[in-house]
């Protein structure tokens, strides 16, 4: 409860103070002489009268919205009932600078407020004072610490100062702005002071140092005021890179020009093959001229060579320039070429290099992409990982190499022709019978409706198998199947020839494979001819349709005559595997 009472009392006290306080707008008015302005004092309740005192005016202004008795000064505000007391000044005078006081009559008492009225006065012209003294001729030596002070006097308010060198910010070390006040005829004025300093170099010679003041009275029609000083520096001839002169004509008088900077004027001498030629002198075909002043401490130095020869273009011309502060040596080369050699690439070359690099990067990226995704020229390649099947294939290939192509059989299948080695034959036929006879090849027949796509890696009903391909029916296959009716002597002879053919099985161009492959008719006929030629029967036997093999009598078992003579395993004429 006590807290609520305290809050209520504070609100009442704040309201009372607000009513008793006079608010002013603005607190400070900064104006130029002749400007128009409005000053206002406000109170929270109705007021009875409004009086305003302005410095430089002899009487107090009693203002009201109903009348205006003083020329140049009128009432400003929403009315006395609104608690506003203001004045509008038509033209501000320099004598009006000071505090404007407003008095408001409120319920038998008078309240007052003040406004600072500042009438700006334009300061005097800036002045540059040298703290570092030059010599009698007004020059500073190279490396001297230059110091200067800029003063802007009698301004209201105080002026700001900025430094420039040739209309560019100086960017040198300066001291903080110092403001000093003074009173003249009861008028308070201000003076601004700032210093600048740095070490001089040849580039500072003949440059203009500017001190510029910025003040409230600056207008578009009245630019800022400034002071300037020209800096003169004395220095030895400035060193520069080796010079080269192009476009000279052989067998003509060559004029070699070079521009150097120095202060004061330098003396010149040329050294050519050990011979010294001073300025204004001639030695043989060489003439040295007096330096010509070009302005801004620049001098043109000229050497004339009469009857320029090709040997002259291979020489190095040494130039020495000296003055009171030192000497500098220069080297000059001359050439009869019209243009100097380009030390950098032109725009076209740069663009060409960039395009070539971009194309190269694009090609590399495309190759990496094609290799990673198996596209284009990498479409037929794949990364082989070691599996059980690949290990078995390697073992079969190794066994075939050890057998040197012996005991290799051609199997005719619905899907093509397969070469079987001796190890494969033994796997199919078994280890032989107990009577020691030669192992025979037993072939398992499959029904037509049985799916053999897993073994052959293809669908027998698909387009891979071409039913129009004529099966390979040769004497070799029929004799291997035991269906030939020839006598045993003929069988032995042809068996040896067929064995030779089988021993050269790898020369037929048919790769060994676990799965059957089909061959187109033209390729199959070509392989048949090659087989005939390798067996020595290509000239005597035509590659016509082989004779129809005869079915052997039941129970007949053909054995090898000699155990050392390789025999051909007998296969059925038409086999389905």
From TrEMBL:
UniProt xrefs under CDD domains: Ig
Region (Disordered): 426-508, 528-577
Signal peptide, first to last residue: 1-20
GO annotation, biological process: heterophilic cell-cell adhesion via plasma membrane cell adhesion molecules; homophilic cell adhesion via plasma membrane adhesion molecules
KW Magnesium (keyword) present: no
Record bears the keyword Transmembrane: yes
Name of one Pfam family that matches: C2-set_2
Protein's cellular compartments: Membrane
Keywords in alphabetical order: Cell adhesion, Disulfide bond, Glycoprotein, Membrane, Repeat, Signal, Transmembrane, Transmembrane helix
Biased composition (Low complexity): 553-577
One cellular component (GO) term of this entry: membrane
UniProt-listed InterPro entries: CD80_C2-set, Ig-like_dom, Ig-like_dom_sf, Ig-like_fold, Nectin/Nectin-like
Ig-like domain residues: 126-223
Spans traversing the lipid bilayer: 347-369
Domain of life: Eukaryota
Compositional bias (Basic and acidic residues): 441-450
Protein name per its UniProtKB record: Fasciclin-3 isoform X1
Lineage of the organism: Eukaryota, Metazoa, Ecdysozoa, Arthropoda, Hexapoda
Gene that specifies this protein: LOC117150720
């Amino acid at each position: 409860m006590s807290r609520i009472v305290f809050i209520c009392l504070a609100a009442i006290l704040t309201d009372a103070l607000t009513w008793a306080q006079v608010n002013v707008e603005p607190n400070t008015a900064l104006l130029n002489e002749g400007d128009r302005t409005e000053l206002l004092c406000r109170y929270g309740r109705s007021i009875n009268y409004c009086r305003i005192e302005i410095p430089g005016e002899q009487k107090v202004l009693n203002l009201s919205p109903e009348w205006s008795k003083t020329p140049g000064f009128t009432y400003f505000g929403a009315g006395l009932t609104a608690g506003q007391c203001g004045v509008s000044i038509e033209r501000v005078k320099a004598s009006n600078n000071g505090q404007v006081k407003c008095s408001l009559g409120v319920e038998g008492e008078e309240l007052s407020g003040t406004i600072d009225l500042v009438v700006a006065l334009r300061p005097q012209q800036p002045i540059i004072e040298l703290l570092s003294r030059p010599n009698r001729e007004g020059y500073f030596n190279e490396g001297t610490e230059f110091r200067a002070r800029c003063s802007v006097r009698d301004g209201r308010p105080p002026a700001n100062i900025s430094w420039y060198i040739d209309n560019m910010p100086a960017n040198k070390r300066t001291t903080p702005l110092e403001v000093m006040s003074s009173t003249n005829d009861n008028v308070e004025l201000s003076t601004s002071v700032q210093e600048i300093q740095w070490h001089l170099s040849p580039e500072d010679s003949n440059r203009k140092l500017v001190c510029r003041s910025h003040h409230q009275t600056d207008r578009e029609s009245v630019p800022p005021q400034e002071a300037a000083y020209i800096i003169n520096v004395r220095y030895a001839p400035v060193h520069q890179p080796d010079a080269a002169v192009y476009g000279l004509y052989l067998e003509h008088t060559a004029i070699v020009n070079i521009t150097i900077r120095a202060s004061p004027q330098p003396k010149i001498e040329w050294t050519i093959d050990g011979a010294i030629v001073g300025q204004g002198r001639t030695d043989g075909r060489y003439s040295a001229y007096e330096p010509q002043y070009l302005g801004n401490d620049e001098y043109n130095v000229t050497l004339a060579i009469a009857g320029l020869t090709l040997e002259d273009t291979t020489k190095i011309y040494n130039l020495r320039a000296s003055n009171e502060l030192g000497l500098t040596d220069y080297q000059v080369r001359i050439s009869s070429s019209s243009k100097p050699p380009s030390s950098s690439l032109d725009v076209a070359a740069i663009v060409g290099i960039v395009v070539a690099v971009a194309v190269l990067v694009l090609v590399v990226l495309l190759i990496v992409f094609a290799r990673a995704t198996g596209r284009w020229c990498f479409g037929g390649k794949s990364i082989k990982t070691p599996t059980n099947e690949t290990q078995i294939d390697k073992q079969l290939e190794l066994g075939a190499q050890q057998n040197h192509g012996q005991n290799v059989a051609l199997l005719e299948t619905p899907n093509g022709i397969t070469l079987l080695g001796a190890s494969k034959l033994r796997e199919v036929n078994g280890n032989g019978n107990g009577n020691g006879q030669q192992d025979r090849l037993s072939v398992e027949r499959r029904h037509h409706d049985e799916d053999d796509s897993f073994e052959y890696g293809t669908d027998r009903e698909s387009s891979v198998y071409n039913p129009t391909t004529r099966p390979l029916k040769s004497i070799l296959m029929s004799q291997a199947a035991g269906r030939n009716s020839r006598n045993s002597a003929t069988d032995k002879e042809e068996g040896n020839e067929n064995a030779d053919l089988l021993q050269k099985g790898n020369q037929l161009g048919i790769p060994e494979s676990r799965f059957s492959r089909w061959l187109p008719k033209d390729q199959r006929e070509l392989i048949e001819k090659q087989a005939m030629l390798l067996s020595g029967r290509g000239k005597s036997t035509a590659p016509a349709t082989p004779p129809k093999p005869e079915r052997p009598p039941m129970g007949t078992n053909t054995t090898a005559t000699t155990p050392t003579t390789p025999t051909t395993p007998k296969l059925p004429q038409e086999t389905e595997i």
